[in-house]
Amino acid sequence: MAKTKGSSKKQQNRGIDFKKIKRKIGRKLPPPKNTTNTEIKSKAIVLPEQSVVSEKAGLALSKKGLTLKELLQHTSHHNAKVRKDALMGMKDLFLKHPEEIKLHRYAVIEKLRERISDDDKTVRENLYQLLKSVILPGCKEDNQGPVISLMMAYIFNAMTHLAIDIRLMAFKFFDLAVEYHPPLFFSYAEKILQNYEDILQKNQFYLEDRGKLKNVLAGLVRCLLLLPSSKEVNLLAKNVPEQKILQAFEHDVPTVFAEYSVIIKKLKNLVPVLVNCFQDFLPVIHDSLDAQSFDCMLNILRSLDHAVTFFIHGVQQGHPEPPPVDQSFSSVLLKKLLVVFPLSPMHHLSEKDDDRYVILNIAITEIFMHLSEWICPPAVLFEKFLTFVEYVLVEKSCSNVRSGKAVREKQISTLIPFIPKLVSRVIGNWKNRLLQAFTKTFQDCSPESSVKLACLAAIEEIIISQEDLLCTDVNDSGQFDYKITLVRELPKLLVLLGNRHPSSSKVVLHLLLRLGQRSLLYDDMQGLLKEFYSTDQDKGNICYGPFLRLARDSQELSICCLYYLSQLDSTLLKSIASCCLCQELDPFMLFRIIEVLHSTYKAGHIQISDHINFLITLASRYKVCPENIFPATDRDKKTSNHATFKSLTSVVCSCLSQMGDNSLVFVILEKVILEQISLKPPLDNSCAMLRILIALDSKPTRLSEQSICTLSNVLSAYLIDVAHCVPEYNDESTIHEQTRRYYLLPSFILFDRSYKLLNLVLNVMGSLINGRSSSLLSGDHIRYAKGHSSIINAIVSVLLWMQRDAKVQQILYLYKEEIDHISRSICSLQSSEEINVPIEERHIIKCAIDRLKTLTSSLYQ
Questions:
Q1: Residue of 94, 97, 179, 191 whose CA lies nearest to 144
Q2: Neighbour tally for 77: CB within 10 Å
């Protein structure tokens, strides 16, 4: 037992070699004691300036901080993504700094042109978009010829590349170059047409990607559109404003003629290739015509049409050998196209798909119409096309589907220019059928549509240019009926157009003028023309037509058309007079209307009574603004039309004096003027009436006794109003004196021609003061002067002004008793207690009596 206790005690006193440490779960272990610390501490070195930043200071940078030089270097990088990013960076830089394009355009083009044949598709597309949207538009103000010429060698190199995608993209680049510099085509016409021929002969890509083929054909259409064609010759022959079609500049036309034979040779080789391309698409027509196939076929037909019109242009211009093409070539081309005409699907299609077939058939029809000017097609084929033209005019114009309205209008507008030639060529029933279809189309299409404008040009050619052709068959009244119907539709169209489409209205007015010059306007059109000017509404209101809101040149055209009507009726003249009285009408146009209508009267197209009524209406109803003779404010002075009305009065007097024997004209005018002036018009209009009267009167006066009696009442009131509106001032200027004389002179001239008239006027003034003239006191004739004091003061002023006039003063000596009677009547009124007159007015009357004494004393001396 003792041994056992000793051994355990010995074990407790021994040391432990490895102490086991218990770790709690989740606690981080401490690092080992023998771990080496690798942490490095340092301080940043601050330099006053970085060398890279100093190099780019003041330079244009992209979003990534790259300069133009660096971006141009990156376009040659071996990585396609870097090249693409460089092009994107250049676009960003040029948009932020557009001036960089003009400064470095040559260097940029010289570097970027290398990417035209880039192996990567995205790089080529980004280059195309960069040129189209940024670089070429940025150089548009400068001469782009040198800039684009730098790319041409690389574009032609890409056109012969082994990769078909690069070749197709090269045509897209060339199309862009021609768009911004059209004369470029003529410099490389032979080479580019050869390249088009080569690419179109390789038809292995037709079914692979028709979108690329569409781009190639669209570029070919753009190039061929630059060639001179027979369409231009026809437009110039008609003297019609040429449409805005892209054409070569005048100084480049000799180049076209110099290369004429070369272009003809290449086009003769290209046309069969285009026809074969078109035939390769025919299987698609019977199945399903997709959008890309349709665009390709349409561009092929357009290219053929431009080529044909260029051939015909060569024949018309008489170019030297070789001849453009012979008739056998044209016959072959026509037969290949007519084999499939008209194109039609095997089953029913939607309205949109049906429109595509119609558009293609119209394109073939255009080619046929141009070829038919050159060769004589068989009658069966000709009738085939006539049937299709009639179908398009009748069926498509009557379609009620709104979704394809713009497409249908474009379809019809394409065929309308051929109608005049067809009408002149066909015989028998087809002439009436075409005219009927054309007339229906013109009536049914909307006024603002392009079809309407196309029809207007065709109407001019049908009616004016082919007038003799329409008159050949005197027994066929149907042709004349269609002609009359078309002409009568023109005034309706003017009213429907209103002022919303001024350019279309101007075209209609031009056509009306041309018809009038050929004596093809009808008098029954005047009812519709009246709505164009103005119409009377209920309660005396006037509804003005489009005439007032059109431009001056259109107004001039419409007025000139009136000259060619055989007889202008009074209702139309009344409508025109309402426009003349409107304040919105330009004064120039007012006098122009009078000039034209007076010439129309001299030509015997207006009756004398109607013309006199028109002129008197202007003088009696023209509203002078402001009505005050002396405007109170500067604004009134700016808007015043007193000067215009004075000129109008002079013009009316001049016209009336040129109408014939003044004594006969005076007989007609006498009653009219007295009726108008008795209506108590404003002062200016009354003065105008009196001036017209004295312009046709003579000494002694031609006025009848009854007219003198009527005029005495009116004239006395007129003189009182003049004295009230043009009072005397102590420091009055010459303008006041001239103005007063302008209004008084007509009356003084009448007094000089008729002493009896002056005697009656003095008697009326005297009776007015005595109160025996109730009509004058009630204001039936006096318009402005009201109250006893105003009237008496005005009467005295009138007598004093008479006394200052040399001729009237001599006449006044004969009527001393009448003047004494006026003086006694004024004194009696001033002292009368029976009449209630305020003190202020009695004082005014007293001053008037004092002024009158100077006149009576001078008369007795």
A1: 179
A2: 13
Q: Which two tokens stand for residue 506?
A: 């101007």
Single-letter residue type at 510: H
Task: Give tens-digit pLDDT for 23-58.
Answer: 777 777 777 777 787 788 777 776 555 554 455 656
Cβ atoms within 10 A of the Cβ of 165, count?
Answer: 14
Q: Two tokens at 147?
A: 């800039």
Which element (helix H / strand E) includes 542? Answer: strand 542-544
Angle between helices 260-280 and 291-317 (to 10 degrees): 150
CA distance 167 to 196: 10
287-331 pLDDT, tens digit each: 677 888 888 888 888 988 888 888 877 766 655 444 445 555 666
479-504 in b/e form (b: 16+ CB < 10 A) is beebbeebbebbbbbbbbbbeebbeb
Helix (H) or strand (E) holding 600: helix 587-602
Written as six digits, the tokens of 80 are 């396609």
Cis amide linkage into residue 183, ω under 30° from 0: no
Question: Using the 8-state DSSP alphabet, how is residue 805 labeled?
Answer: S
User: Are 661 and 669 spatial neighbours (Cβ–Cβ below 8 Å)?
Assistant: no
At 354, the amino acid letter reads: D
> Is 531 in contact with 579 (CB distance < 8 Å)?
no
How many angstroms separate the CA atoms of 332 and 237, rounded?
Answer: 30
CB 279, CB 291: distance < 8 Å = no
Global pTM reads 0.74
Closest Cα partner for 639 from 599, 587, 594, 580? 587
Per DSSP, the three-state class of 534 is strand
Q: How many CB atoms lie within 10 A of CB 333?
A: 22
